User: Fold this.
Amino acid sequence: MRRTLFGEEHDLFREQFRRFIADEIEPRIPEWNERGMSDRESWRRAGENGYLGACAPEAYGGAGADFSYDMIIMEEMAYARAHGMMISLHSSIVLPYLLSFGSEEQKRKYAPGCVSGETLLGICMTEPAAGSDLQGIQTRAERDGDHYILNGAKTFISNGQIGDLFIVVAKTDSEAAKASRGLSLLLVEADTPGFVRGRRLDKLGLRGQDTSEIFFEDCRVPAGNVLGEEGRGFYQLMEKLQQERICIAVASIASARRSLDDTVAYVKERHAFGQPIAQFQNTQFTLAELATEVEVGQAFTDNVVAAHIRGEDVVSEASMAKWWASDLQKRAAAECLQLHGGYGFMSEYPISTDYADAAVQSIYAGTNEIMKRIIARRMGLG
Assistant:
């Protein structure tokens, strides 16, 4: 069924990007998974070909495209299981903060490198004792003349080892009446004295993704590196987290589709009791149900993306898409692994990777429980 969100230009872009993945990305995935991070050259190659920051204005080296092109990149990377190279984090989650809230000086200084792949981005929100509860953040930035002195600890930071520029969420006003009014966003370069990369974290899934601890030890950040207005950080996060949640929904549907497609092919080849297991009614019903849910999820997510591109308020819908699609991804991986039998538990079969990779989707960008709380509030339920 034709997806109305996309036209011929989108189809051409998708085909070009698929070739890029086949030539430049897929051969490197085993190496990324082995060492726990991607490589700089792949990022530069993606930048050279126009696959980073496609939505950035032409003035900063981008194509001035809309979010639908980022969506294509996310879908194809997820379908290829190229989780080690977080283009979505770089282009669709972090870069929009700079483009929306940055001064002209900040954008001209940093955005071109982000588009070319010379400057890799990350965002430091989560702390050891503050995950979904952003108001619990303890990292502090105290004004000292023309600088802020930044101290604190962050964890679960994607691109933590390879990143060059990080948006750091910190308290700049510990006396604010509301905790949410005391947060600010700071642009911190990784080579700043006092910026300390901690250990790369060993995870259940997403083995190729660089996830790390980061520490700030009397890190002196120029006052001019505040992103937007001081004290507006919480509200900036609330605005941009909607797109991050949409990104997760997009990738979750694509990953569920990959698990399903691979399992359909597997059950046609695998025999039991003298026939392909595709012939058993349980197999047919399970896969038919998953196929239906993937298409329903795709249609809803496409509608949310279209509304988001039009600039509509999609706070509830983004939360719905995020929790529902990420739960579907986990369920699809589990059902498909079951249909692989014992082979599904073997690392050589990608479905085992899908099962492990799916676990975190319902946790980050706000847990699915938080998503349901947001939806309930928007319904006037509390």
Notes: The CA atoms of residues 376 and 382 lie 7 Å apart. The first strand starts at residue 121 and ends at 124. The beta strands are 121-124, 140-144, 147-158, 165-171, 183-189, 195-200, 211-222, 271-272, 275-276. Residues 235-378 form a domain with the Butyryl-CoA Dehydrogenase, subunit A; domain 3 fold (CATH 1.20.140.10).
